[in-house]
Design a protein that fits this description.
Layout (H helix, E strand, L loop, with lengths): L1 H13 L2 H14 L4 H14 L2 H14 L4 H13 L3 H14 L4 H13 L3 H14 L4 H13 L3 H14 L5 H12 L3 H13 L9
């Protein structure tokens, strides 16, 4: 448990993904049935692009704890990443069956709806996610995407600002804002956001 907590600290607070991975792996070595550490390592590897390895890990975690809503969400995100959309949606729905107030399940459904071009429906699901977990940066980033798809630029940029406030080490809001300003032919603002992305590179969840 100590190594698992250390991994969480390194990942979330310091942004050091290499140390986080080592801590999660050490925790799993000490207890092969630590489904939380297994799932957190799977989520970290998903963000780093190691999808096949992450899938094996999250399936292992679900074998140990099939009642865990977060595990189903992580599995769903991985399935969506490889375009197994319907299977991913099924996992989000299983999360909601286990916990109707689970914000990440609404986030996952919102992401799927954005992929399907159903922006209005996506914003409804993302707003539900935000209601349950208003301080999660990723929710605000996807709300920003949704509003921009609806050509509501001001609302999009406001959501990206909220995302930045929720997690100052998350470069995603700045990447999205840079792209929006570039589309709007606002090069100074676009370059300013791009500079922030570069400044945050040491904190990104690198594949280290």
């Amino acid at each position: 448990e100590g190594y698992e907590k250390l991994g969480f600290y390194d990942r979330i607070v310091t942004g050091d993904s290499k140390k986080a991975r080592e801590a999660f792996e050490r925790s799993i070595q000490l207890d092969g049935f630590n489904d939380e550490a297994i799932a957190k390592l799977a989520d970290l590897l998903r963000e780093q692009g190691y999808i096949a390895e992450a899938l094996k890990l999250i399936e292992r975690a679900l074998t140990i704890a099939p009642w865990n809503a977060m595990h189903h969400y992580t599995y769903g995100r991985l399935l969506v990443d490889i375009n197994r959309i319907d299977e991913g949606r099924d996992q989000f729905r299983k999360s909601l069956e286990l916990d109707p107030s689970f914000s990440r399940a609404y986030l996952g459904e919102g992401i799927v709806l954005l992929k399907e071009g159903k922006t209005g429906e996506a914003l409804k699901e993302l707003s539900k996610a935000n209601l349950f977990e208003p301080n999660l940066s990723e929710i605000h980033s996807f709300l920003g995407i949704g509003y921009y798809q609806k050509q509501e630029v001001k609302a999009a940029l406001e959501e990206l600002k909220k995302a930045e406030e929720c997690d100052p080490l998350d470069s995603t809001p700045h990447q999205l804002a840079s792209a929006i300003y570039n589309d709007l032919y606002m090069p100074v603002e676009s370059m300013g956001e791009a500079k922030k992305v570069l400044e945050l590179l040491p904190y990104r969840k690198a594949s280290g």
